[in-house]
């Protein structure tokens, strides 16, 4: 078994801003695993919020030796970007060698399209209203907030897209007091979900707090080990493969979270269609699907995912799985 890792850069269609900063390109790592003349591949997006860099994740992947299995990965790599790319590449490799689709290997029904959110970058209220108007035809818009001046932005987006379903991502940017003040306005403006309003290390304040809009754990939820600490704070969990460490754990987290009564959101980092492809399996039947990474790019992989009025479609075999 040969494991290779390379860096790829995809230009964004426009500057993408969240409360933590701005970017103009997506920097990803592509892992290719070859065995018996067959190659499977996967993609990950190292994230500084979780103390990951391109260099550190590359080193983790290059440290793997010999024949690696998905089961063994749990002992070899922690949950995170490195394990994600390797796990997804192994799924792809297994499917190609078996001559079947990944969902057949996983014992899952054939997936279909899922409506995905489209993310509006953090900007001035005027610019965000213009963005919202441009994308008002989309059924689900996601707004990046997380600053002391969010109400004018939210009002502006609602004016720009009066019919769209809206979800809000604060990216840990609010305090408990700010969230409590904003909550009634979220209801008034028809917000369907709010992601990670408080910092992951300070979300105890959510216990006992009124949640008139469902609250989703993102930075507070990585894998199944996260679930015990979410009780009483969150209604929904955001499953991202770069957090869970791959498709294997993402599917397990989905089942465990549902068994405990949580709603499911499936999200992504800003990456190419290769990164989104495995997540389309996890997104089947989810409360919210947020796999719009490729829609934010100026360029994508060959055989990219199809996005249309029905949503994001599962990958063709030429791409993955």
TrEMBL record:
<dbReference type="InterPro" id="IPR029017">
    <property type="entry name" value="Enolase-like_N"/>
</dbReference>
<protein>
    <recommendedName>
        <fullName>Dipeptide epimerase</fullName>
        <ecNumber>5.1.1.-</ecNumber>
    </recommendedName>
</protein>
<keyword id="KW-0413">Isomerase</keyword>
<dbReference type="Pfam" id="PF13378">
    <property type="entry name" value="MR_MLE_C"/>
</dbReference>
<dbReference type="InterPro" id="IPR036849">
    <property type="entry name" value="Enolase-like_C_sf"/>
</dbReference>
<dbReference type="InterPro" id="IPR034603">
    <property type="entry name" value="Dipeptide_epimerase"/>
</dbReference>
<comment type="similarity">
    <text>Belongs to the mandelate racemase/muconate lactonizing enzyme family.</text>
</comment>
<dbReference type="InterPro" id="IPR013342">
    <property type="entry name" value="Mandelate_racemase_C"/>
</dbReference>
<feature type="domain" description="Mandelate racemase/muconate lactonizing enzyme C-terminal">
    <location>
        <begin position="125"/>
        <end position="216"/>
    </location>
</feature>
<keyword id="KW-0460">Magnesium</keyword>
<feature type="binding site">
    <location>
        <position position="169"/>
    </location>
    <ligand>
        <name>Mg(2+)</name>
    </ligand>
</feature>
<feature type="binding site">
    <location>
        <position position="195"/>
    </location>
    <ligand>
        <name>Mg(2+)</name>
    </ligand>
</feature>
<feature type="binding site">
    <location>
        <position position="218"/>
    </location>
    <ligand>
        <name>Mg(2+)</name>
    </ligand>
</feature>
<dbReference type="InterPro" id="IPR013341">
    <property type="entry name" value="Mandelate_racemase_N_dom"/>
</dbReference>
<keyword id="KW-0479">Metal-binding</keyword>
<dbReference type="GO" id="GO:0046872">
    <property type="term" value="F:metal ion binding"/>
</dbReference>
<dbReference type="Pfam" id="PF02746">
    <property type="entry name" value="MR_MLE_N"/>
</dbReference>
<feature type="active site" description="Proton acceptor; specific for (R)-substrate epimerization">
    <location>
        <position position="144"/>
    </location>
</feature>
<dbReference type="InterPro" id="IPR034593">
    <property type="entry name" value="DgoD-like"/>
</dbReference>
<dbReference type="GO" id="GO:0016855">
    <property type="term" value="F:racemase and epimerase activity, acting on amino acids and derivatives"/>
</dbReference>
<dbReference type="InterPro" id="IPR029065">
    <property type="entry name" value="Enolase_C-like"/>
</dbReference>
<feature type="active site" description="Proton acceptor; specific for (S)-substrate epimerization">
    <location>
        <position position="240"/>
    </location>
</feature>
């Amino acid at each position: 078994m040969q494991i290779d890792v390379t860096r790829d850069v995809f230009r964004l269609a426009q500057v993408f801003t969240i409360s933590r900063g701005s970017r103009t390109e997506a920097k990803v790592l592509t892992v290719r695993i070859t065995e018996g003349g067959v190659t499977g591949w996967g993609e990950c997006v190292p994230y500084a919020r979780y103390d990951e860099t391109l260099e550190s994740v590359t080193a983790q992947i290059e440290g793997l030796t010999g024949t690696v299995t998905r089961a063994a990965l749990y002992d070899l790599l922690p949950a995170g970007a490195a394990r994600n790319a390797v796990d997804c590449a192994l799924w792809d490799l297994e499917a190609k060698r078996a001559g079947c689709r990944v969902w057949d290997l996983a014992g899952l029904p054939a997936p279909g399209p899922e409506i995905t959110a489209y993310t509006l970058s953090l900007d001035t209220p005027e610019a965000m209203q213009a963005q919202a108007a441009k994308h008002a035809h989309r059924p689900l818009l996601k707004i990046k907030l997380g600053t002391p001046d969010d109400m004018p932005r939210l009002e502006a987006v609602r004016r720009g897209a009066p019919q769209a379903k809206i979800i809000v991502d604060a990216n840990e940017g609010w305090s408990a007091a700010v969230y409590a003040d904003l909550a009634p306005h979220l209801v008034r403006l028809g917000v369907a979900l709010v992601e990670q309003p408080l910092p992951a290390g300070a979300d105890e304040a959510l216990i006992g707090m009124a949640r008139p809009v469902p609250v989703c754990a993102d930075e507070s939820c990585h894998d199944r080990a996260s679930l015990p600490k979410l009780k009483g704070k969150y209604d929904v969990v955001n499953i991202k493969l770069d957090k869970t460490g791959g498709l294997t754990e993402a599917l397990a987290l989905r089942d465990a979270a549902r068994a405990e009564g949580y709603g499911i959101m499936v999200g992504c980092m800003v990456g190419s269609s290769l990164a989104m492809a495995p997540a389309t399996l996890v997104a089947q039947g989810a409360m919210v699907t947020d796999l719009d990474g490729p829609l934010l790019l100026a360029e994508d992989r060959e055989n990219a995912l199809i996005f249309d009025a029905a949503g994001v479609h599962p990958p063709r075999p030429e791409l993955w799985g």
